[in-house]
Specification:
The structure is a single chain. This protein has a single domain, classed as Orthogonal Bundle (Hypothetical protein af1432), CATH 1.10.3210. It has helices spanning 5-24, 34-43, 56-66, 71-78, 87-92, 105-115, 125-136, 140-158, and strands at 117-118, 121-122. The chain starts with a helix and ends in a 5-residue tail after the last helix. It is globular and about 45 Å long. Helix 2 (34-43) packs across helix 4 (71-78). It is mainly alpha-helical and 163 residues long. It has a two-stranded antiparallel sheet. Strand 1 and strand 2 form a beta hairpin. It binds fe (ii) ion. Fe (ii) ion (FE2) is lined by residues 44-45, 56, 80.
């Protein structure tokens, strides 16, 4: 699909991180579909073959839909933008009104793993957001996204195996 080579490298890095996180989750607490995490993380940025704006998540979902791939994969692409987009935020960005925040464990893992990779380099959530802040300033959208990603981080930490 002519996806840029650095996006492919990024997606592979996100996939490795996502599977690593999934491996830490306590299976007694929540069941994680590893195949979905793997495919979803590899496909999360597929929309970047068409656009590089924040619409690439939604566009990626449309590509996945056009391929008749699983609707769960469509949701992973749609919900990976920042810490997910609320309906109100989505409308402001010109997207069709819908809740694009990660809900399932697989959506949360893929969204979070994406925040831990700057291109193919493993970083912290703070380092990832620092790059956005230096590019776009501390906008309300970025501030809210940071809060949401930290909430996902806490949630995943709580679901991790204790030993
Ligand atoms: Fe992305």
């Amino acid at each position: 699909m002519n996806l840029n080579e650095n996006i492919i490298r990024h997606s592979e890095a996100v996939c490795n991180t996502a599977l690593e996180i999934a491996g830490f989750i306590d299976k007694e607490a929540v069941a994680v579909n590893l195949s979905l995490v793997e495919a979803g993380s590899l496909l999360h940025d597929i929309g970047r073959c068409k656009v590089n704006s924040l619409a690439h998540g939604f566009i990626g979902g449309q590509i996945i839909l056009s391929k008749c791939w699983a609707v769960e994969l469509k949701r992973i692409a749609e919900t990976h933008i920042l810490g997910g987009l609320t309906e109100q935020e989505a409308v402001k960005l010109g997207l069709p009104p819908a809740d694009y925040t990660p809900k399932t464990i697989e959506e949360k893992i893929c969204c979070y793993a994406d925040k831990l990779n700057l291109e193919a380099k493993r970083v912290s959530v703070d380092e990832r957001f620092q790059v956005w802040v230096s590019k776009y300033g501390e906008t309300p959208l970025i501030k809210e996204a940071y809060r949401r990603v930290k909430t996902i981080e806490n949630e995943l930490t709580k679901l991790s195996k204790k030993d």
